[in-house]
Amino acid sequence: MRLDETDRAILNRMQDDLPLIPHPYAAIATELGIPESELLHRLSRMKEERIITRFGPFFDAAAMGGAFCLCAMAVPVENFETVLTKVNAHAEVAHNYERTHRLNMWFVLATETPEGIEATADAIERETGIEVLRFPKLQEFFIGFRVAA
What we know:
Layout: H1 5-14, H2 24-32, H3 36-48, E1 67-73, H4 80-88, E2 93-98, E3 105-111, H5 114-128, E4 133-136
Antiparallel strand pairs: 1-3, 1-4, 2-3
Helix pairs in contact: 2-3
């Protein structure tokens, strides 16, 4: 799972804005000095090797009438994988993290309406039998998160 300089350049570039044009990958490949086919091949390989696990846009759900909510659960260790599968089966789960304390599962719900948060969290509670603690966003902070490859 070694990254060469081209892989690193791709990862660093893909964290910036994707051009809203008919062929965005071709434009990025040109910027990087490689053929579009190579860019796509390298992205596919990195996804298959789990160097990257997700590639896609982040939308401001609240600006579009939706909502975000940080959630946590205290999942028995022996049931963690089963609960993880049930939680992640919901399309509303944006991402999920395991932690090493009592509240060992943390995830973000992103829904089309504020009511969708409650509906999804309630459904997860019914499916798992475990309380979903909800921490709604009170204030938005933009931190410009990037990971240098």
